[in-house]
Amino acid sequence: MNHRIAALAAGLLLALSTQAQTPAAATPAAPKPLVLKAAHLFDGRSGTLVSPGVVVIQGERIVSVGANPKVAANMRVIDLGDATLLPGFIDAHTHIASDHSDDWAQGFYEGMLRFPVEQSFHAERNARATLRAGVTTVREVGAADFVDVALRNAINQHLAEGPTMLVAAHAIGSTGGHCDGSPIPPERMKEPGPLEGVCNGPESCRQAVREQMKYGADVIKICASGGVLSEADPVDVPQLTPEELKAIMSEAHTWRRKVAAHAHGDLAAKLAVEAGVDSIEHGSFLTPATLQLMKQKGVYLVPTRMTQEWVLAKADTYPPKIGGKARAAATAHSEMMKNALKIGVPMAIGADAAVYPHGKNAEEFGDLVALGMAPAAALMTSSIGSARLLGIDADTGTLEAGKYADVVAVKGDVLKDIRATEKPLLVVKHGETVRMD
Predict the structure, then answer these.
(1) How many whole angstroms separate alpha carbon 86 and alpha carbon 349?
(2) Is 242 part of a structural domain of the chain?
(3) Where a domain ends, among 361, 387, 413?
């Protein structure tokens, strides 16, 4: 035995000696700086175009931006010609982890029957489509089974392709509300609790917040009012009490998490704003008084305009209860948006993908312009608007030196053709060009 140990020790010493004599691997050369050139540049902060436009990128970050930054001979240059360079789009309200189906009932129940691992493959497909649409950052506002948390982690580890994600895990709401499941007989399905985002009473709601944060939520999403695509609830009634709302806000904000409130109804939104919410999602029935209160408190509106138009067009294909709610919410939303624009409520873009097909996110810009918003202002609901709401404006949202190289190129002058945002020519995320095929 002693001879054996001696032999092993000698072998180990020889191996270590050989390893020590092996030259260290050469440090890989830093990638060449990337230069993007185009006829125009919209930096996302000034609200104006620079012509021509140049962005110089080193690694993940922007080095310089402007009409004539210094370009060295060793740099890789992509000249896009008659195009506009823009900050990568930031969608503040999406559901990448969920699928769209033109048949609402079939899609809803098929999704419920999938294993979480299977759904994660669907989620990655949706993430790829979203990134190719020019969306380099998203806020995922509610997903089952922590699929969104897993997808975010996989993207961060370069195991999956998609936008940078801030995720909510399960959206939080009351029993029977929009964040609860459909009214399936209880003996056929396990009733959800705080872990799944269903809570009743302040302490139960506090627990639901803690559960989501424990398992990785970056943001807390709540259902303050009823919803359109849910079967059991009226669309506009409050679904959380003032005490429940205060418990949610205090817990989330203590952990430095922001809170997004799904709220079609005016009273529900008002209660959420008074409790300290950071954003109101949808806002179909908001009155001028509540919009004024939001402006006063700096609460963002994420209007999800294109979703309203989508559900109105599809209303006849939904179950009757849902179709009726879709018509009422979409009709009221138009008037609400006119008031919101007049009052000057801070806005962030959010397209609510999964209600409609993934990869169409940028249609929201054109829909906002159709309501009377200036093209530059519509674009800034993404750049400055979404970035500030999400708390990431120090790192992304505008084309400025030191920020992540998240860039989209679209054809022509984007301020003359806002719909050009719907067909990006090039997408760069964190300095890496995205395959557009």
Answers:
(1) 15
(2) yes
(3) 361
Domain presence at residue 421: yes
Amino acid at 99: D
Closest CA to 278 of 128, 388, 399, 117: 388
pLDDT of residue 1: 43
Q: How far apart are alpha carbons 281 and 303 in whole angstroms?
A: 6
Whether 300 and 264 map to the same domain: the answer is: yes
CB 311 within 8 A of CB 229: yes
3-state DSSP: the chain helix, strand, coil percent, rounded to 5? 40, 20, 40
d(Cα 172, Cα 207) in Å, to the nearest integer? 10
pLDDT value, residue 13: 39
| Range 27-56 burial, b when 16+ CB lie within 10 A, else e | eeeeeebbbbbbbbbbbbbebebbeebbbb
Angle at 106 between CA 101 and CA 111, to 5 degrees: 75
Number of structural domains in the chain: 2
> Does one domain contain both 207 and 354?
yes
Q: Position 197: which residue type?
A: G
CB atoms within 10 A of CB 395: 15
Is the domain of 60 the same as that of 158? Answer: no
Nearest to 372 by CA among 342, 406, 329, 332: 342
Indicate if 429 and 408 belong to the same structural domain.
yes
| Stated pTM of the model | 0.89
Backbone angles phi, psi at 30, to 5 degrees: -65, 140
Together in a domain, 82 and 94: no
Query: What integer best gives the mean pLDDT of the chain?
Result: 89
Residue ranges making up the domain that contains 82: 34-87+401-433
Distance CA 171, CA 180 (A): 9
Provide the pairing of β-strand 135-140 with 76-79.
unpaired
Tell me how far apart the alpha carbons of residues 265 and 270 are, in angstroms, rounded to a whole number.
9
Same domain, yes or no: 325 and 343: yes
Q: Is there a domain that residue 375 lies in?
A: no
How far from 81 is each of 69, 407, 422, CA to CA, in Å? 17, 16, 18
Do 184 and 324 lie in one domain? The reply is yes
181 occurs within a structural domain: yes
Helix (H) / strand (E) containing 53:
strand 53-58
> Are both 221 and 338 inside the same structural domain?
yes
For 310-369, the pLDDT digits (tens) are 888 888 788 888 888 888 888 999 999 999 999 999 999 999 999 889 999 999 999 999
Q: Which residue has the higher pLDDT, 10 or 359?
A: 359
Cα four-point dihedral sign 245, 280, 298, 290? negative
